[in-house]
Fold:
Amino acid sequence: MGATAPRVVLGVSGGIAAYKSCELLRRFTESGHDVTVVPTAAALEFVGAPTWAALSGKPVAADVWTRVEAVPHVHIGQHADLVVVAPATADIMAKAAHGLADDLLTNTLLTARCPVVFAPAMHTEMWEHPATQANVRTLRERGAVVIEPAEGRLTGKDTGKGRLPDPAEIFELALDVLSRGAVQPDLAGRHVLVSAGGTREYLDPVRFLGNRSSGLQGYALARAAAARGAEVTLVAANVSLPDPAGVKVVRVETTAQLRDAVLAGAPAADAIVMAAAPADFRPTDVSDAKIKKSEDGSAPAITLEQNPDILKEISQHRLREGQVIVGFAAETGDATGSVLELATAKLARKGCDLLVVNDVSGGAVFGSPDNEAVILSAAGVAADVPRGSKASVAHAIWDQVAATLRG
Structure:
């Protein structure tokens, strides 16, 4: 007999973003989760009970009186493996923070002993109000994951912070929390900066020098840090992935732009993880017009100059006391040394605290959903991270970062 499907409670509160939770529900059910939808009465004004019932395959109720003989106000929370509230309005978070229980969802939140994830959605002024921020702090202090809302178009013509994060990214973060079994908010109150992707150095308006970095590992690091309670800034170089839920994304193209963004964010960061692959070289001259083919078949000469070494710069000239800096080394090994020998020399040369070493012989790692690594510390300790999802590798890295911050 197969394993029991994880039991997920999808709480839906009364905001216009309730319709987006239909996509979140679909992702849970199609990936084999047993989902019980618990809407508030206000949520049913936006999306009706028949929709939730059809998508979940279960009856749906908002009050504690439906099928009262089954004691749903206690039973649903007691048997859940994960509770996700999306959208989470200011009202539902206030009730959760103060222990109010006047409907089925708030009773479920009181009885649940599993991880709880809130995905807020509201107008900017409501999110920024001191009462809401106090409630968010209370929920986080109790171990709940409260995702930072996204910035963008809100109801009507308003634009600002308060938009529900992409349902696909809420789903990925929820899976991350569920896979770990218990929330470890060991990065709560910390600000971390992560870089991801590969930079481009332009030859002309249409051509550039680049590399094969997909940004997947960097995005997994950002998502994992958010799940562990951190305030996360992600500097993304030419990555075409959706923004991770609860993460501020700064988009760049060139190594110079990446450097500027990292230096701008470094003074506020308790930890910096440089997972991006910045180009080592750039053309000394960039043509204003597209470079044309020559009639005689000869190729143009391209002169390169070295780019700034961002990892070395931030490691040796730290802008915040006690800051932990993590570098990445994509190595293949050569006549001068093995992968680990080259990486050990790089760690000493750069001056960072930890170096995540990937053996990329034959193009391994790039674009793959899986990864394996060795994490070298400045103290000379080498920790093997076995092959697994990039999310699991991300958590192994944050485990060491959190331990270093505590130490």
